[in-house]
Design brief:
The complex is a heterodimer.
Chain A: E1 2-6, E2 9-11, E3 32-34, H1 36-52, E4 55-61, H2 67-76, E5 80-84, H3 94-109, E6 116-120, H4 131-139, E7 143-147, E8 149-153, E9 158-164, E10 168-175, E11 178-182, H5 194-201, E12 205-208, H6 210-213, H7 221-224, E13 227-234, E14 242-245, H8 250-260
Helix pairs in contact in A: 2-5, 3-4
Chain B: E1 9-12, E2 15-16, E3 19-20, H1 22-31, E4 37-42, H2 47-55, E5 58-64, H3 72-86, E6 90-94, H4 97-110, E7 113-123, E8 129-135, E9 140-146, E10 151-155, E11 176-179, E12 191-197, E13 211-215, H5 224-233, E14 236-239, H6 241-245, E15 266-270, H7 276-279, E16 287-292, E17 305-308, H8 311-327
Parallel strand pairs in B: 1-4, 1-6, 4-5, 5-11, 6-10, 7-10, 13-14, 13-15, 15-16, 16-17
Antiparallel strand pairs in B: 2-3, 7-8, 8-9
Helix pairs in contact in B: 3-4, 5-8
Classes of the chains: A alpha/beta, B alpha/beta.
The complex binds flavin-adenine dinucleotide and adenosine monophosphate.
Chain lengths: ~260, ~325
């Protein structure tokens, strides 16, 4: 089983996050981390390989700092890592990202077939949840996304997921090669121990540029983006906030507040 | 002079059996300013629904064959055929996880720009849609538009208030119904093994509710005060991930970045600390109320009305008072 796992480096959720003047996510704070939900993706990939054999290759696209994301994946048990980095990638939208990740998977296929592509359910910066399906579209792979549970049948060469959607619960099955995205319900990501961290230091991270992938600079980055942010502004803080401490009548006061504001 | 035949706006109508979901009317409201409205109905649109869509300004209803196992990628491809056939410049969907995937594959197939989780859509220059979106747990507001001629936009349920067009009842005729065929899938597809619709609840649908009362770890597993207050207000019940992980309530009730995103008129959190993951799914709510025994809880930073107190006394008292006022 050869598995590619896509991981993204994102600004730390707990830190002050914002946008640059160009309307792009400010990635200059230097406090980026591996997107938490991609830890679930790495965990899923590594545990499938532990069960069925094979190897996990972690792939990221992003600026120099993004190498941290694949480093973390290596610590968690990925065998090899690829970092796609190129100045022309700045300002890429989901289409550009999916285009690049697809090209990276295709290039990895030159060394042997890829059975499964695993992604997180969302990147916690843009929260779009669309790169996985776009990637499956480019690679013409069947997709089983938003897995809350995931099982691989290596003999039958199928992957089966259970997923909880807004209005229904579903079981979806795909024949390998396929793409899956996993939710935070699917597993508990491991915490790499000292030995794993040391072992990861010896693993190499391959860097590829757009030229290595045969992609023109105009197809990706800000030049290729299909949408454009016109304006980004911090939301003004809520005004007239009220904080009361219960002295026996807070429930009644709460009800009065709701009535006053026509919320009842 | 404007173009004599402006490109239609295609609204994908999510429906529950025979009836459009409330999100469909929100899309029709948002789409009205962007061009002439046409609707897509997956399955056979019942007469009553066709008439109703007509009353909301829809001139044509496009039907796609119902295939219970039509998953988002195939649905996106099927919609692409309708987009090509109608020359639509704008396609609107309700922003659910499934629809976001459908929207993405539709945009991929048609070369359109994609905007998801939109809180509002405005008519920009040349009537082109400008999306208002929120980022970083709704601490930032963005305005974005497509750089390409076609756009697929997914609008958050409940973000726009549905308003029927002027002169409903005096509408000119029933919309024309056009059936489309679906070409066989181009690429290997996944199979739907099982689909279990959620059991109908007496309470409103979480994503569509005007009032949501959320219980967290502070309930300690007893959701009855949360449910009681929700019922007094006619609202839905939601939960934090801690509460769903503990099995106190189904996972479908989870509000947050990895659960349901809500923007009700009123959010009430009880025994909820307000972790950033949770805030990502509720911070764009109209009015935020928090009941928490710890005055240091981060949820108070974003609450319009905060009560430092025990939810087991505050909620029942509030529910009783609300019922009294409603009866009076
Ligand atoms: C990748 C990832 C994704 C996540 N996604 C989500 C998500 O989508 N949604 C989500 O909700 N969480 C999510 N989480 C979890 C999130 O980080 C928090 O752990 C969670 O939201 C906390 O839930 P809570 O507020 O119920 O519990 P706690 O943080 O433990 O807070 C409980 C609160 O209850 C108060 N309390 C206790 N007793 C009482 C009482 N009697 N009366 C009043 N108040 C009382 C306490 O003061 C405390 O503030 C995610 C985490 C990760 C890592
Ligand atoms: N730049 C990137 N590099 C690698 N993987 C990515 C990148 N962007 C998105 N992904 C993957 O796609 C998933 C969903 O991202 P998104 O659609 O942006 O919410 C993430 O959880 C990652 O697995």
């Amino acid at each position: 089983m050869r598995i590619v796992v896509c991981v993204k480096h994102v600004p730390d959720l707990q830190a002050e996050r914002g946008f640059t003047e160009e309307g792009r996510v400010d990635r200059s704070q230097g406090d980026g981390t591996l997107n938490e939900l991609d830890e679930n993706a790495v965990e899923a990939a590594v545990s499938i390989v532990e069960e069925h054999g094979g190897e996990v290759v972690a792939v990221t696209m992003g600026p120099a700092d993004a190498e941290d994301a694949v480093r973390r994946a290596l610590q968690m048990g990925a065998e090899a890592a690829v970092h796609v980095v190129d100045d022309a990638l700045e300002g890429s939208d989901a289409f550009g990202t999916a285009r690049v990740l697809a090209a990276a998977v295709r290039k990895l296929e030159e060394d042997g077939p890829v059975d499964l592509v695993v992604t997180g359910m969302a990147a916690l910066d843009g929260l779009m949840s669309v790169v996985p399906t776009l990637l499956a579209g480019h690679l013409r792979l069947p997709q089983a996304t938003l897995a809350a549970e995931l099982t691989v049948d290596a003999a039958a060469r199928t992957v089966r997921v259970r997923r909880e959607l807004d209005h229904a619960s579903e079981v979806v099955e795909a024949t390998l090669p396929a793409l899956v995205s996993v939710t935070d319900q699917s597993n508990q990501p491991r915490y790499p121990n000292f030995k794993a961290i040391m072992a990861a230091r010896k693993k190499a991270v391959t860097t590829w540029s757009l030229a290595d992938l045969g992609i023109a600079a105009t197809e990706v980055g800000a030049a290729g983006a299909r949408t454009q942010v016109l304006e980004a502004a911090p939301r003004p803080p809520r005004e007239n906030r009220v904080l009361v401490t219960d002295e026996g009548d807070a429930g009644t006061r709460l009800a009065a507040f709701l009535v006053e504001n026509r919320l009842v | 002079m404007t173009d004599p035949t402006p490109a239609p706006v295609l609204v994908v109508v999510d429906h529950h059996g025979d009836a459009p979901r409330s999100s469909a009317y929100e899309l029709l409201t948002a789409g009205r300013a962007l061009g002439p409205l046409e609707a897509v109905w997956i399955g056979t649109a019942p007469d009553a629904a066709v008439e109703r869509l007509g009353a909301w300004g829809v001139t044509r209803v496009h039907e796609l064959p119902e295939a219970a196992d039509l998953l988002p990628p195939e649905r996106g491809e099927a919609l692409a055929a309708v987009v090509e056939a109608t020359g639509a410049a704008t396609v609107l969907l309700a922003s659910t996880f499934e629809n976001k995937e459908t929207a993405a594959r539709l945009a991929l197939a048609t070369g359109a720009g994609l905007m998801v989780d939109c809180a509002a859509l405005e008519a920009g220059p040349e009537g082109r849609p400008v999306a208002v979106q929120q980022a970083f747990a709704a601490t930032w507001t963005l305005r974005a538009q497509a750089t390409v001629p076609r756009v697929v936009a997914a609008l958050k349920p409940n973000a726009v208030q549905a308003v029927a067009p002027e002169g409903v009842g005096a509408v000119s005729g029933r919309p024309e119904v056009v059936r489309h065929d679906v070409a066989p899938a181009q690429a290997p597809a996944a199979r739907l093994v099982e689909r279990t619709p959620r059991a109908a609840s007496d309470r409103p649908d979480l994503g569509e509710a005007q009032v949501v009362v959320v219980g967290g770890r502070g309930t300690n597993g007893d959701f009855s005060p949360v449910e009681d207050l929700a019922d007094a207000l006619g609202g839905a019940v939601g939960a934090t991930r801690v509460a769903t992980d503990e099995g106190w309530i189904g996972h479908e009730a989870q509000i947050g970045q990895t659960g349901v995103t809500i923007s009700p008129r009123l959010y009430i959190g009880a025994g909820v600390s307000g972790a950033v993951h949770h805030r990502g799914g509720m911070q764009s709510s109209g009015t935020i109320v928090a009941v928490n025994s710890d005055p240091e809880s981060p949820i108070f930073e974003i609450a319009d009305f905060g009560v430092v107190g025990d939810l087991f006394t505050v909620l029942p008292q509030a529910a009783a008072e609300i019922r009294r006022v409603k009866q009076g």
